[in-house]
Amino acid sequence: MNKERLSYLRLQYLSGNITARELSELKSLVNDPNLDAEFSDLAEEVWMAPDSDVQPMTAEEANKIYLQVTSVVQQKRPVRLWRRLTVAASVILIAGSGLYFLLNKQNSGFKATSVYAADAAPGKVGATLTLANGKQIALSNASKGELAKEAGVMITKQADGKLVYEVAAGANDHKVNTLATARGETYQVRLSDGTMVWLNADSKLTYAASLNGNKGQQERRVKLEGEAYFEVTKNKNSPFIVETGGQEVQVLGTHFNINSYADEPVATTTLLEGSVRVAAGKAGQSVIISPGQQAINRQGSLKVAQANLEQVMDWKQGDFYLNHVNFKTAMRKIARWYNVEVVYDASVSDITEAGGWISRNKKLSEILQSIEATEQVHFKVEGRKVIVFK
């Protein structure tokens, strides 16, 4: 399939002369992930062409398209491309791994906002710190500066909001602290050994204040529920171990991400730098992964695969990367960040795929409108419940 054929089908659609067979062909091509580059080139040609065949739009119509396109398509080219949106095509065809828009002045596909009347703001920086004595500190409300100090360990909240542990010389505090994010929260902590941890929404990290554990300096051990990204301080004499449900991840000093949500069918450990050993199951199966690889734990059975790092690290970068992601998996991500419940009509298939790249800084309504533009699903919001149907 060449770009000339794609251009022909687009022009047929624009002119209103496209046949039913050609329209079916166009839709099937849009959903072919192998043609992403061709569609991207075609879209750019439409935007940048000095003698475009497109019709001018009103500011309101251009703004609608701008909202949908910018909230879904990963855009790394200069902003000058978006100037074309003020005189955008009456039909803009954008394909990105199955995500497309067919928008025109008569039928833009932009859904009425009434179904999104109960909107939700994006998540925020926040967490709850529980000290060993049971005292709880809501970090989003806590003032900057010292929060607690005992047994030679000082806990402070820095100007950037990060939680920092500092250990005095000779301190060996085995008391356990817990840092927990609710749905719609994310937080960053620097542990007492210098290790940096970013917690995603609805996650919990449990650790000794001095990070020595009951075995002294022999190991650094933490427990994780949910998802976190670690940048572990190197210490060849003290391995860093992350316990999650049914597995242990051991490193000496490296960068990696663990997704171990209870409602996900598998737990994944993805390595960005260094080396990681993952052990799981009663039989003690273990694997060692290299940068760019992922250990997938399905009920104690491990396998190693190449990872899509953009998809894995999207949450830390402030995005939802949805290309070739199972739709219900994508909606679980969205539900955690916006603290909503997702309910599916029986008509929604388990094998539907999402597509695109959407900022986590958008309101929920903008996220849902962008997904809805694919014409694969529709949404209705009732309070904090999102109903999905065909």
Describe the 3D structure.
- The protein has 390 residues and is α+β, with helices and mostly antiparallel strands.
- The chain has three domains: 3-110, no CATH class; 124-311, Jelly Rolls, CATH 2.60.120; 318-389, 3-Layer(bab) Sandwich (Phage tail protein beta-alpha-beta fold).
- The protein has helices at residues 3-15, 20-30, 36-48, 59-72, 309-312, 327-338, 364-372, and strands at residues 92-96, 99-103, 124-125, 128-130, 136-138, 145-150, 153-157, 163-167, 176-181, 185-190, 196-199, 203-208, 220-231, 240-244, 247-251, 255-260, 267-273, 276-280, 285-289, 293-298, 301-306, 319-321, 341-344, 357-359, 378-382, 385-389.
- A hairpin with a 2-residue loop joins strand 14 and strand 15.
- The longest helix has 14 residues, at 59-72.
- This is Ferric-dicitrate binding protein FerR (Iron transport regulator).
Summarize the structure.
The chain has 390 residues and is of the alpha+beta class. The chain has helices at residues 3-15, 20-30, 36-48, 59-72, 309-312, 327-338, 364-372, and strands spanning 92-96, 99-103, 124-125, 128-130, 136-138, 145-150, 153-157, 163-167, 176-181, 185-190, 196-199, 203-208, 220-231, 240-244, 247-251, 255-260, 267-273, 276-280, 285-289, 293-298, 301-306, 319-321, 341-344, 357-359, 378-382, 385-389. It has 3 domains: 3-110, no CATH class; 124-311, Jelly Rolls (Sandwich); 318-389, Phage tail protein beta-alpha-beta fold (3-Layer(bab) Sandwich), CATH 3.55.50.30.
